[in-house]
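One-letter codes give the sequence; each number marks local geometry. A record appears below:


***
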Amino acid sequence: MSRPTDLTLPPCARAYRLDTERGSFAVHDARPEGAPIGTAVLVPGFTGSKEDFIALLEPLAAAGFRAVAVDGRGQHESPGPREEQAYAQRELALDVLAQARAVREADGGPLHLLGHSLGGLITRAAVLLDATPFRSLTVLSSGPAAIEAAQQARVRMLIDALGRLDMESVWQAMRELDPPEAADAATPPEIGAFLHRRWLNTVPEQLIATGRQMLEEPDRVAELSRTGLPVHVVSGAVDYAWPVPSMDAMAVRLSARRTVVEGAEHSPNTERPEKTAEALTGFWSGVG
């Protein structure tokens, strides 16, 4: 999971609920001082939330972009039903399209879409349903198909546990499996408390359904290529969910811009936010 390093919103951002035709979603909305030159919708990954993008908000706004980070249905502060079918990939993709329409009502300029990890699969599905609202798609630490085998085993264990145990019990079991460097003792207390609270707020059926998506996702790169939408593939230099060479190859197949953020792993958005924001805004500026 992404671990935010700071939970304080910058002065350019505010938290509120974004009303759409598919429901209300918790968002963090950062705006530049003047009229934005473009707007980006930021979609988090598996077990994630809008807070995973806090470190990006100020540099994106400083570059002239409005950035709206969302909690998807069943994630953290956006409630969702206790039914797995509510979290089918198509349903989540339709939510993204509704969020994009609601965001664009306020700013009619270029609209860019970004998905981190699982969010990359969901945003890809949204674009394949309807690419017309968007000027570009950025897939951040997300690959062409299912996650790699070693991570599949971990996700299967989690899905099994979620089917048998309550969320608190699963949280404690996950902490026991964490490597020593990820232990709560090495995490600032306020961040550790937030990660725990976010986990308990997340709907377990959402995690089960989206976990299965990461296990079963087909390769849809050729479909995405046919949309003609400009794509940016961004990752750290190391990734445990999708091997970096697989993202390199995906970028070639898409004729996409490729950025590797040195010094980052699966979450460049929290690990190297300034460099990540620089790469994002450079791409968005280049495609209009």
